[in-house]
Amino acid sequence: MSGAWSISPSRKSWWPTEVRLPSVCSGPAQSWVSALWLSTQSRTQARCTGRKQTKPTSLAAALPRCRPICTSQISSRWPRRTTWMQCTPATGSCRSERTSPRPARMLASGSLGRAPRWSARWEIKWRPGPSPSLQELEENYNRAYSEALAAFGNGALFVEKFIEKPRHIEVQILGDQYGNILHLYERDCSIQRRHQKVVEIAPAAHLDPQLRTRLTSDSVKLAKQVGYENAGTVEFLVDRHGKHYFIEVNSRLQVEHTVTEEITDVDLVHAQIHVAEGRSLPDLGLRQENIRINGCAIQCRVTTEDPARSFQPDTGRIEVFRSGEGMGIRLDNASAFQGAVISPHYDSLLVKVIAHGKDHPTAATKMSRALAEFRVRGVKTNIPFLQNVLNNQQFLAGTVDTQFIDENPDLFQLRPAQNRAQKLLHYLGHVMVNGPTTPIPVKASPSPTDPVVPAVPIGPPPDGFRDILLREGPEGFARAVRNHQGLLLMDTTFRDAHQSLLATRVRTHDLKKIAPYVAHNFSKLFSIENWGGATFDVAMRFLYECPWRRLQELRELIPNIPFQMLLRGANAVGYTNYPDNVVFKFCEVAKENGMDVFRVFDSLNYMPNLLLGMEAAGSAGGVVEAAISYTGDVADPSRTKYSLQYYMDLAEELVRAGTHILCIKDMAGLLKPMACTMLVSSLRDRFPDLPLHIHTHDTSGAGVAAMLACAQAGADVVDVAADSMSGMTSQPSMGALVACTRRTPLDTGVPLERVFDYSEYWEGARGLYAAFDCTATMKSGNSDVYENEIPGGQYTNLHFQAHSMGLGSKFKEVKKAYVEANQMLGDLIKVTPSSKIVGDLAQFMVQNGLSRAEAEAQAEELSFPRSVVEFLQGYIGVPHGGFPEPLRSKVLKDLPRVEGRPGASLPPLDLQMLEKELIERHGEEVTPEDVLSAAIYPDVFAHFKDFTATFGPLDSLSTRLFLQGPKIAEEFEVELERGKTLHIKALAISDLNRAGQRQVFFELNGQLRSILVKDTQAMKEMHFHPKALKDVKGQIGAPMPGKVIDIKVAAGAKVAKGQPLCVLSAMKMETVVTSPMEGTVRKVHVTTDMTLEGDDLILEIE
């Protein structure tokens, strides 16, 4: 007997008000379907019949020239409702009116199916709401016909009696050649999806004994009537009132026979073989009076289907297979073993799991435990869905029916498997085969030894300035800083130091190691700068770790020292303007995650941008440290643009705006001791109660002298870095400042001996980042910074870029061009992003051999870098002294110009809508922090989420493993979390296979694991079907592996959203790929009968 197939174009409910019964047709479209309409109570009926001869070429072809043969009036009593139906000979239609209509029922080849939820002008009219189109009906008709024809050789569709929310009960029978028939009781197969059984139970829970007797008796009678031999199943539907309806007989042993064997202790396979040999049931010891029910058994079919994608079949190689076993668990395996390849051409069943217990709840508990112990990696399975079924209270109560899955959408709230170990093996294998995943500026290997972490005392760390902040708030904190005796230090090692020296590449893994030592030994620090600036996007972009998680974890390890971040005013931690609500929300969430002090600056000292950042930080409850970006030389009377008065006027405005602390941000290290004395003493005289904080870089080598001069002039805090992370383009040496102020009124109170140990750790850690170390190309600082005014971090980056572009020998020219570019743009304050604008223009001039005079003269014809054009348009604000003319007019011509604060005209971003979009793409576990990351860096965040979803928690790997992977035969440990440690050994890498892959072998916790890794270099020389890029709108990829059986559009065709594009077939299931958008088909990349992998490009729409 064939299986059931339903037409279900929509998940909405559609209820009939007019039914046109299929009738005998003449002409080319001959009679092709038989239909039967029954009332619910079977009191009267309208019946239309016809013999199946040929299937018309399309549904539409069957519509004309149909001769109605059905006429009668139906009056039937529906449960709690009355239905009246009039069938009219002239039209062949049957009209019905009822207070709450019931759906019709669709059958395929004699088996009961689901409510069709389908419509067409020729077949059924529906109410209420809009109707699906004729094209939708025809498409779903064709899918049902095609699936039935392919599976059973018969595609006929039947309309038959509808029974609302029945139970699907089947009785196992066994007969011999001598007329002996017995039953082995029933199974409940009501839990179904697409009419395919998912979970089977024996015996049926809460089944009335009298109904059980009727079911088994009717089954035996039926078998005896036809002289049935061997094993078989008689299937019934049971309605709410206990009435049973025969469906069919499956004349074979079914997949779910196992539960019957468990409760009856009868080996059905053994029995049917002996029956086929001619033995009788009594000879086998099988008599009805001896068959008894013993407990309860449940069977779950573990398949390679993805419940999150409508149970689409998944294919691929099983990398890991571990089953759940134990007392009361039986496993019937199919193709479940490590290394097995799941093909789209065969059934998706991996293994049948059967649990036997004394009752239904006990069996369910055993099954749940067994499924939880399964580990299947490499392909998706339905195990999470099965676990939800087993934990459902309706299931545990034994009150399920065939609508159970449809009526419990919470079953699809799937808890994704972490699969951390296997993902990490994939990452390590990828690095071993293809090299580092983060760009490497120079070829240098990480140090083979890990840094030594100094001893940390047991117990909580001593109180620090953060305890004052938490107790007295930002104002009290500022007073405590100002009243403090001695010089306070801010340690930049956790951010600006490695941003300047190591391209911002230091990972949270290495910061966490030293964090407890810092908490216990440097409690007298003013703060630790550990967040903001470039660290935010680099963490996601190159290190594949969450910047918010870095903040959270460090906060837990260092509870006593204030954290400080760099906030780019209205640009937050980005390089462009954002809606104001994004900046405010960012500061709020940063404060909630442990940030304390917000150093707010603007690259042009543009006051509207500064004020917005200050307001956002202050409203979040943070300490506002407004920063004045410093350039020029206040001690040089010839430098009139950025004079002492300029800085004093800026300070006045910032103090009036309510800053808690005032900062001088000397990002290029231009402050000389005399300038320090002039500027800081003037500020101290003007604002005696305001804490002053000075930031500089040591590019020239005079950083320590400059900071000592600032301290003597009245500064409260200066910035330093660990000795081994100081100097050059970083901050001045912590040890030098501590030693120079020791036993003086400026004594920092920091133990010098602890600084030595701290420096030793960072010296070892710095060796891990040899490929990013500025010393690879730059051997010392340079006092020419006083002329070119290149900020510390940018100085390092320009040096790297010059070498990577083959301009290493011309770096002197790059620095000279930087000076000229700066003057062309009007002598800017240079800090991100304005410094990048000057740098882009300088490199543009060097690459094109342009002097300043030539660039200005040819400005109307040159294609300047985008950053330069947008600066001149006003996208980052208005520079002090205005824009350079006539350069601006020549470059912009008719391009639009921004007036006032760039972000003021941006509408608020709908963060709730963004969160919904992220959940749709990345799943339920989207945090408020994720929303802000996506708001500021949408593309970077999307890539980060996709990368970590593929390769797992990379922050658990050591830095050497992260950058270059393990060596063959190397053994190492990876701690996923406390108490969960992986023991891994790299074993071997295979030769290249025909698919462009290499097999990488590992030993994980004593067990062999292997993964396949695509060799990206080798694949460049091989031809493969292109993949659909998720970020490119209009590229339509295969939702699952399978064969193309129908292509419904051609290049140049116009398509509507939701229109069918092609049909894929896999594992006996056909899937229609529909258009996600309206447009025109640009190119079709597939042909009929082509076999595709998941995400293979099908076509492009524009």
TrEMBL record:
Residue span(s) of domain Lipoyl-binding: 1033-1102
Pathway per the UniProt entry: Carbohydrate biosynthesis; gluconeogenesis
EC top class named in words: ligase
Sequence ranges assigned to domain ATP-grasp in this UniProt record: 55-277
EC number(s) per entry: 6.4.1.1
Assembly information from the UniProt record: Homotetramer. Interacts (via the biotin carboxylation domain) with SIRT4.
The protein's name: Pyruvate carboxylase, mitochondrial
UniProt organism field: Ursus maritimus
Taxonomic classification: Eukaryota, Metazoa, Chordata, Craniata, Vertebrata
